[in-house]
Amino acid sequence: MTLIRGKVVKVLGDNIDTDVIIPGRYLTSMDPEYLGKHALEPIVPEFYKLLVKDRNILIAGRNFGCGSSREHAVLALKGAGVRAVIAESFARIFFRNAINNGLWVIECPGIKSRVSEGDEIEINIEKGVIKLPSGEELSVKPIPRQIIEIVEAGGLIEYLKKKK
Question: Which pTM value belongs to this model?
């Protein structure tokens, strides 16, 4: 059973585009650690300093990851230590890039109004349940087994290497 326990490090609004996730001036690198130091810089300049190793959960509103199809956005979040993004909805190409690069992306309508920065939450991937600090459980769309395997492998390329 895949459980993700972590801290809500930031609650963002709607339509956070890939230019905000990682500004274009940093696209000369594909190094996740370098990109991670600049993740969300235009709207949260100190984002990198808020993070706790491997326990970071980012919350967002509708249409997270809209804009260009750059994979750098996912790499920046992973490089910053974001373990999962829970949003009310995702831009389709960002959603696919996240899975292909091993980042948990979970859709949960209404999530923004149910959590606060600093909350410790638990996500049960197989059951499609987010457990809030109050003990309340929110149902989310369950993630298909093959998608779970891809993300757990670290992304599509690693998944395919293991399937050989």
Answer: 0.95
